[in-house]
Every structure is written in structure tokens, then in C-alpha cells.
Amino acid sequence: MYLNKGKDESLRRFHPWVFSGAVNHVDGKPAEGDLVRVLTHDGEFIAVGHWQIGSIAVRVLSFDDEPIDQDFWATRLSTAYQLRKAIGVAENPDNSTYRLVHGEGDNLPGLVIDIYGQTAVMQAHSVGMHVSRMSIAQALKQVMGERLQSIYYKSETTLPFKAELGQENGFLLGSSSDNVAMENGLKFHIDWLKGQKTGFFVDQRDNRSLVEKYAKGRNVLNMFCYTGGFSVYAMRGGAQLVHSVDSSQKAVDLVNANVELNFPGDLRHKAFADDAFKYLEQMETAYDLVILDPPAFAKHRDAVRHAIKGYTKLNARAMEKMPKGSILFTFSCSQAISKEQFRMAVFTAATLAHRKVSILHQLHQPADHPINIYHPEGEYLKGLVLYVE
User: How far apart are CA 298 and CA 291, in angstroms?
Assistant: First the structure.
């Protein structure tokens, strides 16, 4: 694949995407997911990666002219595993839940792998990674050995719709009905079969620990609770009461199961299936620790303006009801929303609620969700911990 003249600059800075507008022509007719060698206008090799249809034409796997074979996958996966060991989330007796591969952050664009106990859940976001799934699975088993007993492939909803691959989720290696994994000494049911993402939001681990530190003696409200991770940590932190809210009854059932798994018979917790805005409007309990962790309000650039209004309304509604001296954890997982835009939305909310607010912490994704320094787009999770006077 040959680039237009002058379109090699971003690749020389190791950005891992080639946009379709940079493509001059292609020798042959690659199918989506095929490997292509990327050459400058003058024919100089610059990268090799997966060809795909859309605005991103190539996701770069390597800037070296090397074969993309079993050794390549094993080397990349081994590097990712060593990083997780170095930061203390892998081979940790108190923690068997972590992200092993985070796409571009691990120089494997289009691939996500989360570890839950002895099961890996693999997710492809590109046709190229889908085509290579068996080779990747074999390399993963090679790297992790007996620590890995099964690999579940969950890409029905993440692969490009137009590719018409007819992909069905299922095990690539082994099988497992043991869906309980441990995070920082707490146990959670992981629904990798039907749950969101790979079954659990691994990216909030560090922020859940921070909630635990602030929870003692407080009345905690966990909005958009899903599996109830924040709720379980708050209970271990000594919260006086914890209420979990989600619009999905299935999520409410799951948070109740996770609370029971860690704190059987504990009456401090209640869960409610309700709309977030409706609950905040009608709530009577004085919650002095509130967690707002909504799903992505903006999944693409066109939705940014609407999303900012949503974040503003949500945070204002919560602040209006919080007693003096409360703590608010508020998040955005929308990649299209910048840190500055999210902060401005929250500041606007504070103004609308007529509250004095101080920033205690600025939060982000954990170290097992690394950001490739050449790919700043990989920074997606933003959070603020606020003291509401």
C-alpha cells in the first residue's frame, strides 16, 4: 500500500493508524483483515498492519519489516504480561482480574484481552484481529501456561457490522462455568456470556479503591451501578448504608449477587431498578458520597454537544440534593469528550446547583489500560472527586 506524498509524517512519529485519505494506491486487492505493507510515495517501507474498510485504512502492528507470525504474537503478549506483573496486578494472590491487552496501548490495535481468574476474554475490534484470533489464542496459552485454562471469544458486537462476518461468541480454548474472579481481595461474578464489554469494568479498579477509603460512616449512592463494584468496595470501607441504582433489572440482580458473595446477609445494601435522573429527582435519602459512572454519552464526535449537556444535567441534579460536606465521584468514559470538556460540564453543573465545589482528585484509567505515548486518543476515562460544600 503506497501513501500519498507527504502523508508519512504521522507514521514516522509512530502513530498506529493510516487514514484512508493518506492512501495513494494498493498493489493487488486486499480483503478486509489482510496484512499489508505500508510504503511511502517513493516506495520506502514504513509499517505493516491490518487492512480495513473505513476512515482508518490500516491499523499498524509493527514499524519494523518483520513477519506477523506466531512468534510475533507471543512476543507482544509476553511484553504485555510482563508489564502487568511489574505493576502488581498479575500473579497477585489478592487479584485475578485485570486487562492483559489494551489495544494500541500494548501495540496490538484492535485487540482487547481481559483476565478473570483462569479465563481470558478476548475481544476483537478489527477484522484483522478476528482473522488472527486462533493464532493469538495459541500464543496466549503459550505465554501464560497453566495459569490460563480457557479463552472465551466475545466479539459479536464489536466487529465492524459491514464486514458481515456472522461471528458468534464462544470458547476458543477449554471451557469454564466458574465465573467468580477476585479484585483486590473482593469476589465478583463475571458475566462474560451476556454482560457488557468483556463482563466487568476492569478500568475502575483503582477508583473503586479510592471510594473505599472515603466510605467510612457515609451514606453511599452508586448510580449506574452495573455489577456493583463501587458498592462492594464502599461496604468494605465501612459505609453506613449503600444504595445501588441501575435501569437494568439484570444489573440489579448482579449487584445483589456480588454483595451477597462478599457480605452475606448484610442489611446495609439495597438495590433499585430505576432511571438515574428520575431517582435523583425523587430521592429522599441524604447521600453524602455519590458515584456517577454513566455509560458513554458520546460514542462519536457528532454527539459531543448533546453529551456535555447530559453530563451537566446529571451532575447538577446530584449536587442539588447532596448535603454539605459531601463527596462526589463523577466520571466520563466517552473517548470523544476531552478532560477539559468534562471538567467544564461539571463546573457548569456546580454553578447551576449553586454549590461551592473543590477538586480532591483527578482520575483516569489504571496502569493495565496503558496509553501509547504516540496515540493520545487512547486516553478515554476521565473522573473527578469533588468536595461539595
Answer: 19
What is the domain class of 201-388 according to CATH?
A: alpha beta
The Cα–Cα gap between 247 and 103 comes to: 30
Rg value, the chain, Cα: 22
> What's the N-to-C CA distance of the chain in angstroms?
59
Q: Cβ neighbours of residue 160 under 8 Å, at least 6 residues apart?
A: 32, 52, 53, 54, 126, 127
Per-residue pLDDT of 113-138, as tens digits, reads 999 999 999 999 999 999 999 999 99
Burial string for 209-244 (b: 16+ CB within 10 Å, else e) reads: bbbbebbeebbbbbbbbbbbbbbbbbbbbebebbbb
CATH fold for domain 70-184:
Transcription Regulator spoIIAA (3.30.750)
Note the CATH architecture for domain 2-62: Roll (2.30)
Which residue bears the cell 493469538? 136
Angle (nearest 5°) at CA 88 between 171 and 101: 35
Q: Give just the sign of the alpha carbon dihedral 63, 65, 69, 70.
A: negative
Quick check: pTM over 0.70?
Answer: yes
Q: Nine-digit cell at 184? A: 483486590
For the cut 80, the answer to whether the pLDDT of residue 160 exceeds it is no
Q: Pick the closest to residue 221 from 261, 163, 279 (CA basis).
A: 279
The cell 477539559 sits on which residue?
340
Distance from C-alpha of 330 to C-alpha of 386, rounded to nearest angstrom: 8
- Sign of CA pseudo-dihedral 276, 278, 279, 285: positive
Domain boundaries, the chain: 2-62, 70-184, 201-388
pLDDT value of residue 301: 66
